[in-house]
Specification:
By secondary structure, the chain is α/β, with parallel strands linked by helices. The strands form four sheets. Strands 9, 10, 11, 12, 13, 14, 15, 16, 17, 18, 19, 20, 21 and 22 form a 14-stranded mixed β-sheet that branches. Strands 2-3-4 form a three-stranded antiparallel β-sheet. Strands 5-6-8 form a three-stranded antiparallel β-sheet. β2 and β3 form a beta hairpin.
Length: 572
């Protein structure tokens, strides 16, 4: 078995450095899987091989000598609609490993004309056969069986764990850990690596199909699936981590490498990483457990919440288990480029930072504000949650009674078993918002919040069994929020003291109907305030009226739970 350090670009100095292991890129598996049956090929290369050939035939050679296909070529080859073909392009763009790829750099309106590299697209299609690791069943299933009311005929099959089952059960143990998911992804890639390499390889010059080789350019596409080290190195080519391409002279033509040699090298590195993950998990299980109490008293909520966020060297910033509290993360607090909000309830979460990816999972009765997200947001298994985000794209899966206030450059994707979802235009701002949007490449002039695209109610990437015929059922889409119910969300200004940001208003233009309703409500409020001010009452009666209004407002603060947010923010 090859040592992980031997695979690193700096293996000569392994005496003083930690081993560098091969890791799967999580982004394609977390944000790149589409529940479209015609994209899923379970027979390895038997179907994908001919599809690759057809894509190459329909491709156009770009200025960088890559073969690229647009949505029309994708739709014709895969026999899918042009809407779904554009979704494929947008999804691939959001999870590509190379930030300098023309598809990643393209403006939203130019993505179709730029098209996708054929070999990146083939790898994207191949991993559509991946099945996610399921949450582990709660040890006392009967104790939580009555928590989630069964209002859908498909609940028993489609909702592995509801948000309320998660909070009643010990969700930190029930949900797959990052290490479990990484091992699952690596095992999948290990099993399918021979097929993947055969799709990238070509016959050696003058030899038959049995002698396949990979050029450095083709090998580079494996960077879509793998990365070396605990942090993705931006700008570094994946091939420079391989012993057969490292330190190649850029002015000399590279020498292709036998696919069998590449396969052996990758298999050895995967085995080393899996062994490392297993050893690390064993050490963690034998160490002291740290399980947070979900029933945090109000007086302790703010201080307790600060212990429920963590950031690993390679992984995202985790915000987990916040209950009956408010929680704030600003740009200076987020070390990585992604965030995960897990199992938070009856709380207000602010992540005011530029991000590439964000995930919200298993939350209920919460308001979650995400700053600018340049790649993708995924919201899954949530109930009665308000999500406010400016993002390039968002996917909503298996949620109920949630409202999404969106500033999105692409159509919101709705998949799975959803009920009573509502969408509305973006409704807030904070001083650094526009600066963060510029950093992640978002455009405020494009907002497709009201164009949700609903796919199937069944996600073929889960490992659940489904009743016959359900796979053809379309997911329930989202409806527009009534303009009369639309209000601006105010983010407190006292976070972090004085801010140097220049954003003074919502950067996304409001649709006329929402602007009119907002102006009407504002005018009505002004009239009421003027009437109260001019009401002909004696001073003592005015004081009584003022006291009654304050009492009603205080009652509302307690009844709605917002009083807790005031206490927590005051503590900040």
């Amino acid at each position: 078995m090859a040592d992980g350090a031997d695979a690193s670009p700096s293996s000569s100095s392994t005496a003083t450095k930690e081993p560098v292991f091969l890791h799967p890129r999580r982004e394609p598996f977390e944000h790149g899987l589409l529940p479209i049956p015609k994209l899923i090929f379970t027979d390895g290369t038997q179907t994908l091989g001919p599809i690759k050939t057809k894509l190459i035939e329909r491709s156009i050679t770009s200025s960088t000598n890559s073969l690229r296909v647009n949505s029309i070529a994708i739709a014709e080859t895969l026999q899918i609609s042009t809407d779904h073909a554009r979704l494929v392009l947008n999804s691939l763009a959001s999870v590509l490993h190379c930030d300098s790829d023309p598809l990643v750099l393209a403006k939203p309106d130019d993505i179709d004309s730029v098209g996708a590299d054929v070999y990146d697209l083939v790898l994207f299609l191949y991993i559509q056969s991946y099945k996610r690791l399921l949450p582990r069943t709660h040890k006392d299933a009967a104790a939580v069986a009555d928590v989630w009311p069964s209002t859908s005929a498909f609940d028993g099959y489609l909702s592995a764990l509801s948000p309320l089952q998660l909070v009643r059960g010990n969700s930190r143990r029930a949900m797959p850990s990052q290490a479990d998911e990484e091992a699952h992804q690596l095992s999948y890639l290990q099993k399918h690596m021979a097929n993947i390499l055969s799709l990238l390889a070509e016959p050696a010059e003058g030899e038959g199909e049995e002698s396949l080789v990979l050029s450095m350019e083709r090998f580079e596409h494996l960077g879509f699936l793998f990365q070396f080290g605990e942090k993705e190195s931006e700008g570094n080519q994946f091939s420079q981590s391989a012993p057969f391409f490292a330190n190649s002279d850029p002015d000399m033509p590279d020498v292709p490498v036998p696919a069998a040699q590449v396969h052996e090298w990758i298999s050895q590195n995967i085995a080393s990483t899996l062994e490392h993950i297993s050893e690390r998990s064993s050490a963690k299980e034998n160490g002291p457990n740290s399980v947070f109490d979900q029933d945090v008293a109000m007086a302790d909520a703010c201080t307790a919440s600060s212990t429920k966020a963590s950031t690993s060297a390679r992984g995202p910033c985790y915000i987990e288990g916040i209950s009956k509290s408010s929680f704030v993360r600003q740009a200076s607090d987020v070390k990585g480029s992604s965030a995960k909000v897990l199992n938070c309830h009856d709380s207000v979460i602010y992540i005011l930072a530029p991000l590439r990816y964000a995930t919200i999972y298993g939350c209920s009765d919460a308001t979650i504000v995400l700053g600018a997200v340049g790649k993708a947001v995924r919201v899954e298994h949530c109930e009665r949650v308000h999500v406010i985000t400016a993002a390039n794209r968002i996917c909503i899966a298996n949620c109920r009674e949630c409202v999404f206030f969106l500033g999105v450059n692409q159509r919101p994707l709705v998949v799975g078993d959803n009920h009573k979802l509502q969408v509305a235009p973006f409704n807030t701002f904070y001083p650094e918002l526009e600066e963060h949007m510029t950093q992640v490449g978002m455009e405020a002039s494009i907002n497709r919040w009201d164009e949700p695209l609903a796919l199937g109610v069944v996600d073929p990437h889960d490992s659940l069994s489904h009743p016959a015929g359900v796979s053809d059922v379309q997911a329930e889409s989202a409806t527009r929020l009534d303009p009369d119910q639309f209000t601006n969300f105010l983010i407190p200004k006292w976070f972090g003291g004085e801010s140097l940001g220049s954003t003074k208003n919502n950067p996304f233009p409001l649709p006329d109907v929402y602007m009119t309703s907002q102006q009407r409500n504002h005018n009505n409020l002004g009239e009421i305030k003027q009437i109260l001010k001019e009401v002909p009452l004696e001073e003592n009666r005015k004081r009584e009226l003022s006291t009654a209004l304050h009492l009603c407002f205080k009652d509302w603060l307690y009844a709605s739970g917002n009083i807790r947010q005031l206490y927590c923010l005051q503590g900040e």
